């Protein structure tokens, strides 16, 4: 099953199991079912609980927060994650802050889904990976879809936490199959919010990457193993922030070289935060500083040959690890 | 453009309404006094001159209705919940505070009352809450905003959605003619009525400092919001008799005199001098005692 279909089924399951769940977004209703078809069939099945909205990203995130405060649960789809900037106030100053600023815990069960990333030729304002701008906001969780994680479980976990979340979904990943078991070279294991992908136990190289990078990370891992004879373990967290590395402590304990890859642009990044966290934990055991792989400090051009230069490629990951 | 408030004779006012208006007035005056004495931290925005609006509105609200307030929200709170000790404790960070002193003056969440400090931010949230009310049929959402708030895009996103989706949302606009230091004539093109008309949203404006008149003019509108499940905007012409926050008033003497003349207090003191004097003594003493009581409490705790 492809990731897009899995997400669609997960939303069906979520709404079927919990009548308090409402979904809002631009063009999410049938027959269109959303720009990436992730919400297909939901409005036919759940009627007024699914609402196609005006082009008002800030407004609909606010409405979602209002529903959440009043006792419902809300999933808001923003058509392209680039437009999440229009909802920054509602996310940072209202939804996230409301969990704490009234002096007591206030639950805000709100998920803002964000189709994200480049490699589809959509140009500078429809291709970005803005995860880093949401890292470190008190009261806001940052998730990213991966082909290993059950989205329905993640959605349920987010709602149960009462902490609002932005949920990034790589637009190329939509077209890829969900993964389990292994690929012939590596085994895929999912544990406590992490996917562990490895060819052997206790590798000296460990790569951490969000779910959207999985296809490129796996391609790099295969080349490293087959061509360069380097076994590298890939760790994919479902929740990017706050990041809890406890479930993969054993994998990290064996590491001598750690690499972090992400699709966001260089500087002030998620990866830098991961490196800070891991340096504290692994200092003294590593034989080199943590390597960081990201897009360059650049906008994302439209033409395919230019876009390829400004997005992370498998070769970039392989080169960083095999240096 | 809203002209100066001209009031010939006020209708007789109930003791309950006048007491509450005076209670809010003295609460606000006490805050400004505490600031002058250096006994309050941060900032505050008093509603001097606007106290009668929430007193008029609150009587038309039901317990299950949600109220959304803003930076200038003490009157909105005190008109709905007669809990000045808890509000003062919140503002001064003392035991018994509404939100343990974390939210302070601008960020209060108490039962079905919620305020936020960012202009216009509450309106889309209020639409979400109103949509739930529409479904459950158990109330409406009421959001207070000012004339300055109409510069925010969120207001228009919210009005559009509310009208499209039939959200029972009452927006009360306290049009005090000034946004911090900028006259509304310099920050708002066209009119609030015209903007509402563009969305097909019901709008009604009242120019009176008479609490009974304001309430009577609002009552049918609230009924339409409840019964027809639709939004409405109620615009009340008021004067901001005090500074934006504290000691930051740059208005001319003439402008200040006009604001003072448009203050409901001046009208009530003129028309009902004995009633105002009698109740004012009670409320002043009550608030003075509340201040003494709250400031003697231990600091609030937050875990």
Automatic annotation (TrEMBL), chain A:
The keyword GTP-binding does not apply. It is an enzyme of class 1 (oxidoreductase). SUPFAM superfamilies: Thiamin diphosphate-binding fold (THDP-binding), TK C-terminal domain-like. Residues 1-176 form the Transketolase-like pyrimidine-binding domain. Its cofactor is thiamine diphosphate. One of its GO terms (molecular function) is magnesium ion binding. One of its GO terms (biological process) is pyruvate decarboxylation to acetyl-CoA. The keyword Nucleotide-binding does not apply. InterPro entries: PDHB_mito-type, THDP-binding, Transketo_C/PFOR_II, Transketolase-like_Pyr-bd, Transketolase_C. Its EC number is 1.2.4.1. It catalyses: N(6)-[(R)-lipoyl]-L-lysyl-[protein] + pyruvate + H(+) = N(6)-[(R)-S(8)-acetyldihydrolipoyl]-L-lysyl-[protein] + CO2. It comes from the Bacteria. Keywords: Oxidoreductase, Pyruvate, Thiamine pyrophosphate. The pyruvate dehydrogenase complex catalyzes the overall conversion of pyruvate to acetyl-CoA and CO2. This is Pyruvate dehydrogenase E1 component subunit beta. It comes from Herbidospora galbida.
From TrEMBL, chain B:
Its cofactor is thiamine diphosphate. Residues 20-286 form the Dehydrogenase E1 component domain. InterPro entries: DH_E1 (IPR001017), PDH_E1_Alpha_Subunit (IPR050642), THDP-binding (IPR029061). GO terms for molecular function: magnesium ion binding; oxidoreductase activity, acting on the aldehyde or oxo group of donors, disulfide as acceptor. One of its GO terms (biological process) is pyruvate decarboxylation to acetyl-CoA. It comes from the Bacteria. Keywords: Oxidoreductase, Thiamine pyrophosphate. This is Thiamine pyrophosphate-dependent dehydrogenase E1 component subunit alpha.
């Amino acid at each position: 099953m492809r990731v897009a279909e899995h997400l669609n089924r997960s939303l069906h399951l979520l709404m079927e199991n919990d009548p308090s769940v409402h979904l809002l977004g631009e063009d999410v209703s049938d027959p269109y079912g959303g720009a990436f078809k992730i919400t297909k069939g939901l409005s036919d099945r759940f009627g007024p609980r699914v609402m196609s909205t005006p082009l008002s990203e800030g407004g609909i995130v606010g409405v979602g927060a209002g529903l959440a405060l009043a006792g419902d649960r809300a999933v808001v789809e923003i058509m392209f994650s680039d437009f999440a900037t229009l909802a920054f106030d509602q996310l940072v100053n209202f939804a996230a802050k409301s969990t704490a600023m009234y002096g007591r815990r206030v639950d805000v069960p709100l998920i803002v889904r964000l189709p994200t990333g480049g490699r589809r030729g959509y140009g500078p304002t429809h291709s970005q990976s803005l995860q880093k701008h949401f890292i470190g906001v008190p009261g806001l969780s940052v998730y990213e879809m991966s082909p290993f994680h059950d989205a329905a479980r993640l959605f349920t976990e987010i709602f149960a936490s009462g902490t609002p979340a932005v949920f990034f979904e790589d637009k190329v990943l939509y077209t890829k199959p969900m993964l389990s078991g292994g690929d012939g070279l590596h085994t895929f294991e999912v544990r406590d919010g992490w996917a562990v992908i490895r060819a052997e136990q206790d590798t000296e190289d460990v790569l951490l990457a969000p779910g959207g990078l999985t296809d490129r990370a796996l391609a790099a891992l295969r080349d490293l193993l087959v061509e360069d004879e380097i076994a590298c373990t890939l760790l994919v967290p479902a929740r990017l922030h706050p990041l809890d590395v406890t479930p993969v402590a054993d994998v990290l304990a064996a590491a001598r070289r750690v690499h972090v890859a992400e699709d966001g642009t260089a500087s002030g990044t998620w990866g830098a935060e991961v490196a800070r966290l891991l340096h504290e934990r692994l200092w003294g055991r590593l034989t080199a500083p943590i390597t960081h792989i990201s897009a360059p400090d650049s906008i994302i051009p439209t033409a395919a040959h230019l876009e390829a230069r400004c997005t992370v490629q498998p070769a970039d990951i392989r080169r960083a690890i095999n240096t | 453009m809203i002209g100066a408030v001209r009031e010939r004779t006020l209708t007789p006012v109930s003791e309950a309404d006048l007491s509450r208006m005076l209670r809010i007035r003295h609460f606000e005056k006490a805050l400004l006094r505490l600031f002058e004495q250096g006994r309050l931290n941060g900032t505050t925005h008093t509603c001097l001159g606007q106290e009668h609006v929430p007193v008029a509105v609150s009587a038309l609200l039901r317990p299950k209705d949600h109220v959304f307030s803003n930076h200038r929200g003490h009157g909105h709170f005190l008109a709905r919940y007669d809990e000045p000790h808890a509000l003062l404790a919140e503002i001064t960070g003392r035991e018994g505070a509404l939100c343990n002193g974390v939210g302070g003056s601008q960020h209060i969440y108490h039962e079905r009352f919620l305020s936020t400090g960012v202009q216009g931010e509450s309106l889309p949230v209020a639409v979400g809450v109103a949509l739930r009310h529409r479904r459950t049929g158990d109330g409406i959402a009421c959001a207070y905003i000012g004339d300055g708030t109409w510069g925010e895009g969120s207001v228009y996103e919210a009005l559009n959605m509310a009208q499209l989706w039939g959200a029972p949302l009452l927006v009360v606009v306290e049009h005090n003619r000034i946004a911090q230091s900028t006259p509304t004539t310099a920050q708002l093109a066209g009119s609030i009525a015209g903007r509402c008309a563009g969305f097909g949203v019901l709008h009604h404006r009242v120019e009176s400092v008479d609490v009974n008149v304001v309430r009577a003019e609002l009552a049918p509108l609230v009924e339409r919001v409840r019964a027809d499940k639709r939004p409405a905007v109620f615009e009340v012409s008021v004067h901001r008799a005090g500074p934006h926050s504290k000691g930051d008033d740059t208005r001319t003497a003439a402008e200040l005199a006009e604001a003072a003349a448009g203050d409901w207090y001046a009208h009530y003191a003129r028309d009902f001098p004995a009633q105002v004097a009698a109740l004012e003594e009670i409320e002043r003493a009550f608030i003075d005692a509340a201040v003494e009581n709250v400031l003697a409490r231990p600091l609030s705790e937050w875990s």
